[in-house]
Amino acid sequence: MKRRVRNHYRMAFVFMVAVGAAIVDYSSGANAQAARAGAVKKDGLQAVYATAVEIAEGKRIAQASCVRCHGLDGISTVKGVPHLAGQRPAYLYLELRAYQSGARGKKVMDGAAEFLSDDALVKVAAYYASLDPAQPVAASGAKPVPAKPGPVQAGKADAAACAGCHGEGGISKTPGMPNLVALDPKYLVAAMKGYKSGQRKHDVMQSLLAAVSDADMNNLALYYALQKPARAQTPVTGDQAAGKAAAAACAGCHGKQGVSTNPDIPSLAGQDAQYLATALQAYKDGSRGDESMKGLAAALDDRVMKDMAAFYAAQPPQPPNVRRPLTTAEWAKKCDRCHGVNGNSVAPFLPALASQRVDYLEKVLRDYRARVRKSSAMAAMSDALTEADVENLAAYYARQKARAVVFVPVPGK
Ligand code: HEC
Ligand code: HEC
Ligand code: HEC
Ligand code: HEC
C-alpha cells in the first residue's frame, strides 16, 4: 500500500497529519511507531504537502535570510549554531515559531525569522529538512571528544591517594585510621570540609585536603558510599556486652546497631575501634568540637569508651541510602525513548540529536536546566544531569550517525 517517494521528493510531507493520509517512515525500514507519532496532533498542525517547487522556494528564503549562520547546506560551521540539515520538519517549524514569539529568546537569530510568514516558515523548514544531515563528529575528521569520567570514576581515581591510610575501598587495615565506607556522602563531605577549613583539627587531613575542590570531595564521598561495606580489618578489644548496654543512650541518633538513618550523623557500625575511642576522647577533651557529642562524652570514662567502641566496631555496617548515578549509555537509553534510536527521531516534531554539533547540544541542555529554554519534557530530564552527563551525552549524540527520514504517502480515502 505504501509508495516510496523518490529522493528529491523525500520531504513530500512536511507536517503530518490529521485525516488519515500520511505516515512517516525511516529509510532503514518500516516502523509502525512512526505512524502513531505522525497521527498525534500538536499545536493544531495541519497536513501540509511540500512539493519540489515549494522546497525550491524554501531554498530562496534560506539564501536570503539564513545562510550566513546556518549555511546553504544546513551544516553549521559556527559555534553555538545548530545544524539544520535533515532535522525533522515539524520540529524546525515549531522552533521557528518559538523564535518569532520570543519563547526562545529575541536576539539569538538576529530577528531572521521575525517577519517571515507562516507559509515561508513551512517552506524554509521543508527545505532544510530535505537536505542530507551532517556527518558525525568522528567521521568528519575532528578529534573525538574524550569521555569525561563520571563522578564515581573520578572519585575512585582521587581515592587512590587515601588508600594508604584508609584502606582499599575505604576499609581500614590500620588501627586508629577510620573506615570511610558505609558513611553517608553528606557526612563525609562535611567532615572533609571541616578539616579543610580547620574547623575540625587534624594537620595531616588538613594538608591532604587543602587542594581538593568541593566537586572532588563530592566525588570521593559518592565513591566511598557506593563501595561494599565491611568492618574495619583491625583488632577489637573491650567488653562488647558492657558497651552494648552503655550504647543504649546513643541509639536515638546513631541507630540501635550503629547504623544511622540521618545523613548528618555518622554510622558507627564496623568502624575501627581505636578510632571510635579516640574520637570520643577528643569530644570529651574539647579538641573535636561538636555540641551534642561534647556533653555526652563528658560523662564517659576511658573504660566505657573502649567498651562502646568494641560494641560498635563489631556491628555489621550497612550501605548508606545512595543510588549509583546512571552511566552515559544508561542515560542515552532514556533519551532515545523520545529522540529515537541513537538520537534519530521518528516523530516529526521531536528533534533528532544524532550528528548535531557538540557545543550546541551542551548549550541547549544547560539552557533547559537553567529554564532559559522552556520545555516541560526537557526540564525534568535535564535537572538530573550533572555537568559530566551533559558533556558526555552531547559528545555521545554528536558521534552518532544521522539518518534522514523518508516520508511515505499512503493513499487516502
Ligand atoms: C545570526 C545568525 C542566525 C541567522 C541569520 C539564523 N539563525 Fe537560526 N539559529 C541561530 C542560532 C545561534 C541558533 C541557536 C539558538 C539557541 O541556542 O536557541 C539557531 C537556531 C535555529 C533553529 C533551532 C534548531 C534546533 O535544533 O532547535 C532553527 C529551526 C533555525 N535556527 C532556523 C533558522 C532559519 C530558517 C533561519 C533563516 C530564516 C535562521 N535560522 C537564521 C543563528 C541564526
Ligand atoms: C596519612 C594518612 C591519611 C591519609 C593519606 C588520608 N587520611 Fe583521612 N584521616 C586520617 C586520620 C588519622 C583521620 C582521623 C583524624 C581525626 O581524628 O579527626 C582521618 C579522617 C578522615 C575522615 C573523617 C572520617 C570520620 O569518620 O569522621 C575523612 C572523611 C577522611 N579522613 C578522608 C580522607 C580522604 C578523602 C583522603 C584522601 C584524599 C584521606 N582521608 C587521606 C589519615 C589519613
Ligand atoms: C543528639 C544526637 C547524638 C547522640 C545522642 C549521640 N551522638 Fe555521636 N554524633 C552525633 C553527631 C551529629 C556526630 C558528628 C559530629 C561531628 O561532626 O563531629 C556524632 C559523632 C560521633 C562519633 C564520631 C564518629 C566519626 O566517624 O568520626 C562517635 C564515635 C560518636 N558520635 C559516638 C557516640 C556515642 C558513643 C554516643 C552515646 C554515648 C553518641 N555518639 C550519642 C550525634 C549524636
Ligand atoms: C519525554 C520525552 C523526552 C525525553 C525522555 C528526552 N527529551 Fe529531549 N526533547 C524533548 C522535546 C519535546 C524536545 C523539544 C523541546 C523544545 O521545544 O524545546 C526536546 C529537545 C531536546 C534537545 C534540543 C534539540 C535541538 O535541536 O535544539 C536536546 C539537545 C535534547 N532534547 C536532549 C535530550 C537528552 C540528552 C535526553 C536524555 C537525557 C532527552 N533529551 C530526553 C523530549 C524528550
UniProtKB/TrEMBL annotation:
PROSITE patterns the record matches? CYTC
Residue span, Cytochrome c domain? 53-132, 150-228, 238-401
- What Gene Ontology terms describe what this protein does at the molecular function level? electron transfer activity; heme binding; metal ion binding
Which superkingdom, per the lineage?
Bacteria
Q: Which Pfam families match?
A: Cytochrom_C (PF00034), Cytochrome_CBB3 (PF13442)
What start and end residues bound the annotated signal peptide?
A: 1-32
Q: Is Glycosyltransferase included in the keywords of this UniProt record?
A: no
- Keywords of this entry: Electron transport, Heme, Iron, Metal-binding, Signal, Transport
- Gene3D superfamilies reported in the protein's UniProt record: Cytochrome c-like domain (1.10.760.10)
Question: InterPro entries annotated for this entry?
Answer: Cyt_c-like_dom, Cyt_c-like_dom_sf, Cytochrome_c_Oxidase_Subunit
Q: What is this protein called?
A: Cytochrome c domain-containing protein
Say which species the protein is native to: Candidatus Muproteobacteria bacterium RIFCSPLOWO2_01_FULL_60_18
